[in-house]
Write a structure and sequence with these properties.
This protein is mainly β and 167 residues long. Helices cover 9% and strands 47% of the residues. The protein has one helix spanning 3-17, and strands spanning 28-32, 36-38, 43-52, 54-55, 58-59, 64-74, 81-84, 89-92, 100-101, 115-118, 123-133, 138-147, 155-165. The protein has a five-stranded mixed β-sheet with strand order 1-13-12-8-9. It is globular and about 45 Å long.
Length: 167
Amino acid sequence: MGKRGWVLGLAALMLLSGCGTFPEEDGMIEATLEETVSTRWFDCTVEKAESRTSYEGYAAASGNKLVIVELKLKNPFHEPVFMYDTDFQLYWGDCGPDEWAMPLEPYSADQLPQEYDLEGGKSLEGLLLYEVPQEETEFTLAFLELIENGTEEGEEGDLFLTRFTVE
């Protein structure tokens, strides 16, 4: 799951969809908080989401807030899965060019690392922090499967969207 391929793949998807919402099509799986979805490589649950002005000494810039997403991942297979924190992107509004965020770089032991192995048969829980405009309350956490096929971009698989509201 390459960072650049994921960004390019979702950017293309948004352009095709006219944004506003993600396109309704086969291969799109929607979920809500506490609902587990099964991707090609792991099971994923957004346990909870909340907003704060600061977390563990990091304060959001003026006019912004932090959205803190508690994520639980489980690898039901025997082989490890290599992951990036940027595999999970946060969207709001009309999904415009400035209406999405990557996770903040980890600075707390509670956050998922930038890169990690999700070991076979194991679970992992951690936080992803995003800095977003203060006025936004409706969010979508997105994960796009990218299958290595020998090209730089890879092949797009299913798109997993977890929608939630935080004040």
